[in-house]
């Protein structure tokens, strides 16, 4: 198993580019099952989750090719309607196969997805939505069974206790585009990744009104055609790069960073006193200056609110910004697994319910061996290592490889000292003992 060794306190300089968005790519891959014609997906990030989704489509009967880097050609002429547990259990996003299988096959058997260390993410709203479309839904023996032979348009409200459901919206949109009649989805998620899926479906011949809003109206069509579609760049990766430049007090240009998708983050960075400029429609420059930042309070919310996927990274920045900051997590209340690891590096953070109380320091964090618990915690620890003194060893970086394409290579391109090494290279306890 690999680890990252990061030698911190190195100035960063240059340009870094965000890859395609994993959270847009996975449902877009699932949407290729809606047609027997060929779909070409461009700007797909080379990530373990994306590669696994390709294998899952193959297991369902699709022909999957990779004609060029970051490009996939998928033809789903004949497919099965059953996605078994031994495949779905490996990646929660596999549940977004439910919608396209219901739409095209008029039946689906999909294993229930597993949980996650950041907290439970049930699919009750997905199933409620399918029931509102006239589907017969049954959950037994760990599977969701859906009979959609009598499916029809309907009115669906997708609001939940933590706001709109992103994958639930994706599933219901994909189910509705080939279901007879008019479907109206209220309290739909309007994240850029959902918008991207809708744009892809429109290019295939779907009829969707209200894209980008919380109210979607979908008129079912008999068939969809193939398409060539380019996935949006990853706003979370771009945001992570902006924060890396801020906490290392560096001058960095981040490409693939669309200000429209990052409005809530940029608002908080401006409030914190960060010097940045929007240089083009998809490029932002950060000019970090010593001692220029001040603490901020943040509450994570569904889009267009502050994104939960950049909470851990902001927590890292605030731990090295003098003053008191409070970050409240409204999407996944358990999403503070990174805090004990940041404390190992010297951060002063206390958890009170769904909030992190951060007493930022003017002194830098200290490098230490740390353990990643999930994807975004991994990124937060890497960023902490970039700004810390000494060496930071980040373990379990397979989490990182799920959502950040060649992150270590990209950071080295800015001058960071980041090495990917086998875990046998980690110093033993006696090597690091005081």
UniProtKB/TrEMBL annotation:
The keyword Manganese does not apply. Residues 7-411 form the Enolpyruvate transferase domain. Gene3D superfamilies: Enolpyruvate transferase domain. One of its GO terms (biological process) is peptidoglycan biosynthetic process. It catalyses: phosphoenolpyruvate + UDP-N-acetyl-alpha-D-glucosamine = UDP-N-acetyl-3-O-(1-carboxyvinyl)-alpha-D-glucosamine + phosphate. The active site is at residue 116. Phosphoenolpyruvate binds at residues 22-23. NCBIfam families: murA, PRK09369.1. This is UDP-N-acetylglucosamine 1-carboxyvinyltransferase. The lineage of its organism: Bacteria, Pseudomonadati, Verrucomicrobiota, Opitutia, Puniceicoccales.
């Amino acid at each position: 198993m690999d680890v990252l060794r990061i030698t911190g306190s190195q100035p960063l300089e240059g340009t870094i580019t965000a890859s395609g968005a994993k959270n847009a790519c996975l449902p877009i891959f699932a949407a290729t099952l809606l047609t027997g014609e060929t779909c070409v997906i461009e700007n797909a990030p080379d990530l373990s989750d994306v590669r696994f989704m390709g294998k899952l489509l193959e297991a369902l009967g699709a022909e999957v090719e990779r004609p060029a880097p970051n490009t996939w050609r998928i033809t789903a002429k004949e497919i099965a309607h059953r996605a078994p547990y031994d495949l779905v259990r490996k990646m929660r996003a596999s549940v977004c196969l439910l919608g396209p299988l219901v739409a095209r096959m008029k039946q689906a058997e999909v294993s229930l997805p597993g949980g996650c260390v950041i907290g439970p993410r049930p699919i009750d709203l997905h199933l409620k939505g399918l029931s509102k479309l006239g589907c017969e839904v049954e959950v037994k023996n760990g599977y969701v069974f859906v009979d959609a032979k009598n499916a029809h348009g309907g009115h669906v409200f997708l609001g939940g206790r933590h706001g709109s459901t992103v994958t639930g919206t994706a599933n219901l949109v994909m189910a509705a585009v080939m279901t007879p009649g008019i479907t109206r989805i209220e309290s739909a998620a309007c994240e850029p990744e959902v918008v991207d899926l809708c744009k892809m479906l429109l290019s295939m011949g779907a009829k969707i009104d209200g894209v980008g809003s919380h109210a979607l109206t979908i008129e079912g069509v008999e068939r969809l055609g193939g398409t060539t579609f380019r996935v949006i760049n990853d706003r979370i990766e771009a945001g992570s790069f902006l924060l890396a430049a801020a906490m290392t007090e560096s001058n960095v240009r981040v490409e693939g960073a669309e200000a429209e998708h990052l409005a809530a983050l940029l608002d908080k960075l401006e409030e914190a006193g960060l010097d940045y400029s929007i240089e083009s429609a998809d490029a932002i420059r950060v000019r970090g200056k010593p001692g220029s930042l001040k603490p901020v309070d943040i509450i994570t919310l569904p889009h267009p609110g502050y994104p939960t996927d950049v909470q851990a990274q902001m927590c890292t920045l605030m731990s090295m910004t003098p003053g008191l900051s409070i970050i409240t997590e409204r999407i996944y209340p358990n999403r503070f697994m990174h805090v004990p690891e940041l404390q190992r590096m010297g951060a002063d953070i206390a958890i009170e319910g769904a909030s992190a109380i951060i007493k930022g320091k003017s002194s830098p964090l200290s490098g230490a061996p740390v353990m990643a618990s999930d994807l975004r915690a991994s990124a937060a620890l890497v960023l902490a290592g970039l700004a810390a003194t000494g060496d930071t060893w980040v373990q379990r970086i397979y989490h990182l490889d799920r959502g950040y394409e060649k992150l270590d290579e990209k950071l080295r391109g800015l001058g960071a000292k980041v090495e990917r090494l086998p875990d046998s290279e980690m110093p033993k306890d006696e090597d690091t003992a005081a």
